[in-house]
Design goal:
about 65% helix, mainly alpha
Length: about 60
């Protein structure tokens, strides 16, 4: 099963829930913070019932 990367909006939501002192762009430049934010975003997508096939096909319903 292929995993899809989170989009910027999901990354920003995950970032806001982590309550970091750095700006979003600074945090994404740091490899450790980037991995942390991406992992949290993927968990957020899973929790919300993310459908990768729907995103890949670009359905907007």
């Amino acid at each position: 099963m292929q995993s899809i990367e989170p989009d910027r909006l999901t990354l920003e939501i995950a970032y806001s829930r982590l309550k970091m002192n750095k700006s979003f762009d600074d945090a994404m430049r740091n490899p450790t913070y980037k991995k942390l934010i991406e992992t949290r975003a993927k968990a957020l997508m899973k929790h919300r019932g993310f459908d990768s096939k729907k995103i890949q096909s670009n359905d907007k319903d």
